[in-house]
Design goal:
3-stranded antiparallel β-sheet; single chain; 3 helices
Length: about 140
């Protein structure tokens, strides 16, 4: 062994290289966790709106078949359901030209509004013109 050769350096990472690698890893992981968290929040919001839409659709179908029965049905505790039924003639008067186009049916139709709300302030509203449900 010759003494004038420089000593062989251990092959490894310096402290500075390790710290830079940890900093880069931290930035990447923070970005990934933030993206995953935002995706989860968006998904849960979409899922809640979908639940409200399903409840409103079901209530609309029930109300079409049996007027007044939708509010009596057993809905999930976190969903408040509002059903409003007005005569079509009254609603048609608010929109120029609508009532004149359906003069023969004005008394046989109702304007049905179903609104489903949850405790977090989300809501979903459906509106439809339905048979009045009154006996002829």
């Amino acid at each position: 062994m010759r003494h004038d050769e420089p000593p062989v350096r251990d092959r490894g990472f310096t402290l500075l290289e390790v710290l830079v690698a940890l900093a880069v890893l931290g930035v990447v992981l923070t970005t990934l966790f933030r993206l995953a968290g935002d995706s989860l929040v968006q998904y849960s919001g979409r899922e809640a709106r979908f639940r409200l839409a399903l409840a409103a659709e079901a209530a609309m179908d029930i109300e079409r078949l049996t007027p007044g029965a939708a509010v009596r049905d057993g809905w999930p505790a976190d969903i408040q359901l509002t059903v409003e039924r007005r005569g079509f003639a009254a609603v048609a008067g608010e929109w120029p030209g609508l009532g004149e186009n359906l003069p023969a049916l004005r008394d046989d139709l109702d304007w049905l509004v179903v609104r489903a709300e949850d405790g977090s302030g989300r809501s979903f509203t459906l509106e439809a013109v339905v048979p009045s449900g009154r006996s002829p």
